[in-house]
Design a protein that fits this description.
Blueprint (H helix, E strand, L loop, with lengths): L2 E5 L4 H17 L3 E5 L2 H8 L4 H4 L6 H15 L16 H13 L2 H13 L8 H10 L4 H7 L3 H16 L7 E4 L2 E4 L4 H13 L9
Helix pairs in contact: 1-10, 2-9, 5-6, 5-9
Length: about 210
Amino acid sequence: MRVEFHFDFGSPNAYLCHRVIPEIESRTGTKFEYVPVLLGGVFKLTGNISPAVAQKGIRNKPEYEALEMRRFVSRHGIEDFRMNPHFPVDTLAIMRGAIVARTTGCFEQYIDGIYRFMWSDPRKMDDLEIIRGSLSECSLDADAILEGLKDPKIKAELVRSTEASVARGNFGSPSFFVEDELFFGKDRLDAVEREIVSRTRYPLSPPSDI
């Protein structure tokens, strides 16, 4: 069974999912595949806009969304989450870096490191020199990764990954696919887990009432 997490480092909700995914992996025995997508590209292809823009001027809704985030953080015991003071951050470089890291065998280490410096020890992660220093702190080859950002193949792969994700139904981040079944948002993680369990128990045709 293929379970995918389509992510962009710029989404705080995607980061919170990243922190909870290991719990689901442990309970279900199913490994999530991380798929980098550029959220700006997803928005452009779908006509979507960021929640910060969509909720601007709406009375009470932003406050409620902040409340739901605090509830999620508390429920899962995530004590080191910090909103990035530079938000929104242009994630083009660090998302291309994820493609480089995937091709050079340091993907998981890169993801943990970048997420740390976006939402735990937040920095301005669209500044190349800050990215360089942050990667070095994670014992990653910063020079090689930053050089890889210039590679046309790396650029094209991020575009391809983003377009393919949208073609399957994605319109934002965090998004999940259990096989071809789409789930959107951190509040759908419970549904993702139920789908995994259902397909594990009934791999051919899961009963509709599960």
